[in-house]
Amino acid sequence: MRLLALELILSLPDVRGHIPRFDDFRPAPATPAAAGVVRALAAAIAVFVVLALAIWGTVWLAVHLL
To answer: Does the global pTM surpass 0.85?
Structure first.
């Protein structure tokens, strides 16, 4: 009875159609795409370079202001 009530409540605002069932999910690929790994690595390197340059610039400015 509780499931029927829940089904009726969810069907009123048409939410039931947006709840995925287990069989709606397809299995994920076993290995990630190479392009995604390269893009993530490039983003990590870019963040590291920006942080390193920010620290270097701060130290350089502090040394020259002293």
So the answer is: no
